[in-house]
Design goal:
mainly alpha; 2 helices; rod-shaped
Length: 39
Amino acid sequence: ESEIGAFNFTDEFIFDLWAAIDDIKAGRIKDRDYEDERL
């Protein structure tokens, strides 16, 4: 937490950042499976 504070990143920023990364990872997997099912 001390290192994060040094960069002045807020908890909300970190939360949104990791949430976006998780969405991208999940999105890639879901999109790939979804396209395979459509084809």
